[in-house]
Amino acid sequence: MTGKGGTGKTTVAAALALGLAAGGHRTLLVEVEGRQGIAELFGLGPLPYEERRVAGTADGGEVRALAVDPELALLEYLDMFYKLGAAGRALRKFGAIDFATTIAPGLRDVLLTGKVKEATTRTADRRRVYHAVVLDAPPTGRIGRFLNVTAETARLAKVGPIKTQSENVAALLRSPMTSVHVVTLLEEMPVQETVDAIGELNGLGIPIGKVVVNAGRPPLLTGTKVSQAELRRGLAAAGLPTDRATVSGLYAEAKAHLTRRELEESLRVELAELGQPMVELPLLPSGVDRAALDTLAAELLGTR
Amino acid sequence: MDRILADLGVRIIVCCGSGGVGKTTTAAAIALRAAERHGRRTVVLTIDPARRLAQSLGLTELDNTPRQVKGIEADESGGELHAMMLDMKRTFDEVVLAHTDPARATEIFANPFYQAMSSTFAGTQEYMAMEKLGQLHARGEWDLIVVDTPPSRSALDFLDAPARLSRFLDGRMLRLLLAPARAGGRSMFSLVTASFGMFSRVVQKVLGAQLLTDLSGFVAALDSMFGGFRQRAEQTYRILQARETAFLLVAAPEPDAIREAAYFAGRLGEERMPLAGLVLNRVHRTAVEGLSAERSRAAADELERAGGHDATADALRVHAALAEQAVRERRVAAAFTDAYPAVPMVEVAAQPADVHDVDGLRTVGDALSQP
Ligand SMILES: Nc1ncnc2c1ncn2[C@@H]1O[C@H](COP(=O)(O)OP(=O)(O)OP(=O)(O)O)[C@@H](O)[C@H]1O
Ligand SMILES: Nc1ncnc2c1ncn2[C@@H]1O[C@H](COP(=O)(O)OP(=O)(O)OP(=O)(O)O)[C@@H](O)[C@H]1O
Ligand SMILES: [Mg+2]
Ligand SMILES: [Mg+2]
């Protein structure tokens, strides 16, 4: 799940993880930017680097959440291949891991996406542990670089296990198992970034899923254009004041609303032209609680 | 805003705030007004402006230096508007060039670590925005510099990122990596050597030997520039504390943005940086204060039942929704004004469409200057 900052990536990712857990499945909701957005959304304390149950569904499904810490992911990775043990911990203490993952952001990204791949393909009793893994990904401005792991690591690591690892991740990200959804609002900048990101991901051969138009408001106008004369008559019929200030004020408000709607409509057309499936989610005025997430999940998956 | 712009002692205005609240728009509107109405020779440093706004300001040439904006109405006032868009990588390159000889610089530019860091390091953009501000200030060609800040979730990043970057450039790991080189291959501290040996063995195993060579090359090259880097960042930080600087905090009337604004106001106080005011942007206000949401909605329902006045019913519903939104926004904004009652505040109405031309900027400028 990507999108411009603040458009609702975390909210929509959580709703999707919940929706996909329906039917008694287990899903994993992953965040990678160290913001503890999932914990905040579910009203929990900071999540450790550990898969934890954060929500259940009525039919026995569950959502687990994981906040990936790049340092710990690197240690885990090193341990898997090299059995470092105490030496690994010493490296961490010295700040070496922080250093390595900071100076080479591509390295950090391959660790983060590598962890997602591991969870996605993990099996127990010869069955996949997770029915689906939903990643609350970096925003549109960084998504191409983040998912294009091979290009970034190829610049730094020409041989060795990191290179192999990144090739495996890249293959998964370009397979039909992956789908990148883009969340947007009906505002100019988020729509522009959505268009740009989809172009970029297409160029990289990474499969794109839905365009999620979040926080839309229901139409208030039936479409008939109002005139000041009609307003005066209507207000009189309703027993409301018909002075000039009231009439011209209401007129100005209706006109501004219409302008806004027309702009939204043209942005909607621009999004539709991308040719991806589109889904619109309502603005939930009382904020995002569990019931709101369920509503969004039903809209997202068309199960309402 | 006019009071601030008329004060010739104010030579730098910094627009801060969390992501998407309108920092770039506000910065551009202020700079335009300063040039048109106050006759000031103004430069605005924008960061990642919306494409259409950039076009209207003539920001098509990406040469990382200000260009005069043509076609503004400044004949009478004698002001000028210059605008530029920050190019982060180029600014980093300029810093390198300023601190080292061309041969060394070429070597650094070719280093893959430098390439990664100058284009993707978290905080590089903030650091380079400060660097560019320092450069513009040093040129002394403008009597007002208006600075936009990078799009980040937290307004605090602008203040924190440069320190984080210089801490990093100056940090323990770098010194560790440099230790053998400095001591002619043998460090005085065996612990350091042992750790470094272990570090390099692991890096070599995982990433290959070439990477380590590149890394130490990068570190050694940077070593000669640390001092200069930090010094420049500190100088700019001091400019931000000076009386010639005014911080404007931009926020939208939404809980996250207001919370961020309050944090930021607190931080500015701690850093003794001058906060000139809060711009509450994209505010919704009704044009008919006397008509409540409830009454308006009830009337709409009634008209609909009776029939014949659907268009008025629609308009009344639009009004009801707007009135409710205005109440909600006031409540949200009060969290800031209650905590910082002494900070002046100005409201800018949400325009029906995005602001991407000079006319739109003038409208915002007018709103900013309401008494
Ligand atoms: N459909 C909706 N209705 C009402 N509020 C919403 C809706 N979607 C998101 N929000 C609210 O909008 C805000 C931003 O949402 P969220 O944190 O999911 O965005 P994000 O894209 O993850 O942001 P960031 O880029 O900061 O990570 C939150 O306060 C959230 O509760
Ligand atoms: N008062 C306003 N009314 C309507 N639209 C506005 C208003 N102010 C800003 N906008 C629009 O909101 C969008 C975001 O504004 P802007 O780019 O100035 O925000 P920003 O804080 O610089 O964002 P970022 O954090 O991404 O840099 C732009 O499309 C702009 O045209
Ligand atoms: Mg988020
Ligand atoms: Mg901006």
TrEMBL record, chain A:
Residues 1-154 form the ArsA/GET3 Anion-transporting ATPase-like domain. It holds the Pfam family ArsA_ATPase. Gene3D superfamilies: P-loop containing nucleotide triphosphate hydrolases (3.40.50.300). Transmembrane segments: none annotated. SUPFAM superfamilies: P-loop containing nucleoside triphosphate hydrolases (SSF52540). GO terms for molecular function: ATP binding; ATP hydrolysis activity. This is ATPase.
